[in-house]
Amino acid sequence: FLMERKTQVKINRKEIILDKLRKTCSCTPQKLKNFVMDFFPVLRWLPKYQCKEYIWGDVMSGLVIGIILVPQAIAYSLLAGLKPIYSLYTSFFANIIYFLMGTSRHVSVGIFSLISLMVGQVVDRELLLAGFDLNDDAPPALGDGSLQNDSLSNTTAFNLTIAGINAECGKECYAIGIATALTFVAGVYQVLMGIFRLGFISMYLSESVLDGFATGASLTILTAQVKYLIGIKIPRSQGHGMLVITWINIFRNISQANLCDVITSTICIVVLVTAKELGDRYKHKLKFPLPTELVVIVVATLVSHYGKLNEVYASSVSGAIPTGFIPPKVPEFHLMLRVAVDALPLAIVSFVFTVSLSEMFAKKYAYAIRANQEMFAVGFCNIIPSFFHSFATSAALAKTLVKTSTGCQTQISGVISAMVVLLVLLFLAPLFYSLQKCVLACIIIVSLRGALRKFRDVPARYHVNKVDTLVWVVTMSASALVSTEIGLLVGIVFSMLCIIVRTQRPRTALLGQIQDTSFYEDDLEYENLSTVPKVKIFRFEAPLYYANRNYFLKSLYRLTNLDPNLEAARRKKYEKKEKQHLKKGNHRTANGLGIGETTLQLVPKQIDFQALVVDCSSISFLDTTGVNTLKEILKDYKNLNISVLLACCNPSVIDSLKRGGYFGRDFGCMQEMLFYSIHNAVLFAKDQK
């Protein structure tokens, strides 16, 4: 039987588009109010803020994140190739802007190791192209020995104008000029993606691609920090293969290692790792995480300052960090043109990490976020701070987990964290002058534990899905051995190729009947299935389109042990020879064989089925080639007196077959060609003569 399809109401797309345009372009006070409140979600939730219930958790988590932010911001400045003050600016402005525009209550937006690495790679490349020496560290301005004078003696360098490469702009101001231009363009990309609703791009970054990218980038980050750990001066490698080249240079210069830095690094890593492991083990008993990074930085700074490690042992230190804010400046347009291509992967990675974390915690705590608004929020977290000498930001998993574990309820906690950073910016920054760079490198490396632990998950990942494991390995290897941007692109392309290959060569099977039931399954996968006499049931587990047409036909001919084209050719050849010999009156062939013996050679076997049922339940769509392929097998098997029956077709496939003329012009034979279950098709085939 044929089910009657519902009559589809024709949609006037022109009217729908015009109606949407009228609604979009109209401006009423209520609509303007809704637009402003949607663009600044804080206006919706802040008036409803339950102070008694939320304030303690928000203040506590804000203070803890602020304490963590300060050492991380100073440390990640090494990754970005910039001075620590710019990392502090970034952390401050990002928290304030996301408080106003973000829809997630829990994510911590600010400086992030992977984003800092991507910014640093662009900055290093442009500095090299501009003729600056990447290893030319500015000598510390000692002044009269006081920390305050140290900071004042270096403030003039921050007020230089950025006007391309000239005598007035040194290495530092050109580096931050590149970083702000890159950040501005990345933010513009994100806002444009929000306007045109291109958030679906994130769907092409699978979990395997993101994990592989993060792990590969973590290896690059670790490699870049080793020289600070052991206190050697080696050229900062750029371009493809940076990881391998850096390790070669490290081993070549290992004899120049600074013993003071090596000892300091060893102590710091032992303390940090031990504290992290204890924190993980007893996290349910601790009300808030131990501020280990801050304690290590304070102790290390005091030891370095009073032990004069820089003067006595030549240990590299952070140097002067000025207080206050630098006057805002518009990013240079000609620098934007130089980094426009680099900003695209930066924008995508920043957005994807932010939205994925927002969705994860929104699901966990049962509230909704708006992905498009998140794109606007992270976009403006890049655009606005770029005027204030900041660089690109993103949500960070580690800090977000800390926020939720310390009682965070809303983004008020982000404002508290920003106030802690502001306190450092206004008063405490100069105190970090004597902080050794090897201590910062230790903080960065220990923070990579989560990403590097992904190597332990490879066996379990391989057990679950081999293809996803291969995607992870390829993405990780490309990100580490080539470059982070190329690694991300390779991961996306390779994961798509894996999907294409899986549809090009999908599983195919002949089905047998489960005894005493009307169900059918793969004969090779299950025991005790009975074959249906005179009927072959073929399953193809993928869409049928131009890329897998040949595989479909080859699999069908192989499993049924019959190629209708070859069989038809054999029969024609036999008939032709038979006619020739009958005309001559000779009943023996040229080979001395009788006609019957010739038949055995030309038609070696009898066809053991009279109906072919194609299970279309796994065929999600057909293109023109797919429809023509089914029409082709229908015709070829019909020439051999074998009927082809289709079962379990979805409405989309049926419509494609109708439009392609598979059922004829008037669809009169449709009831004898299309069935809603395999069993119905089998019963129909058995009833045929």
Short description:
One of its GO terms (cellular component) is apical plasma membrane. Helix content is 60%, strand content 5%.
Task: Write up what this structure looks like.
It comes from Pteruthius melanotis. This is Sulfate transporter. By secondary structure, the protein is mostly helical. It folds into 2 domains: 408 residues, no CATH class; 145 residues, STAS domain (Transcription Regulator spoIIAA). Helix content is 60%, strand content 5%. The strands form 2 sheets. Strands 3, 4, 5, 6, 7, 8 and 9 form a 7-stranded mixed sheet that branches. It has a two-stranded antiparallel ribbon with strand order 1-2. β8, α27 and β9 form a beta-alpha-beta unit. α8 packs antiparallel against α15. The radius of gyration is 34 Å and the shape is elongated. The relative contact order is 0.12. About 4% of the residues have low confidence.
Low-pLDDT segments:
138-167
DSSP helix fraction: 55-70%
Categorize the overall geometry: elongated
The main sheet comes to:
7 strands, mixed
Structural class: mainly alpha
Strand content: 5-15%
Radius of gyration, rounded? 34 Å
**Integer tally of domains:** 2
Secondary structure: number of strands: 9
Count the helices. How many? 28
Roughly how many Å apart are the termini?
20 Å
Mean pLDDT across all residues, rounded?
Answer: 85
Family: Belongs to the SLC26A/SulP transporter (TC 2.A.53) family.
Pfam families: STAS, Sulfate_transp
Protein name: Sulfate transporter
Keywords: Cell membrane, Glycoprotein, Membrane, Phosphoprotein, Transmembrane, Transmembrane helix, Transport
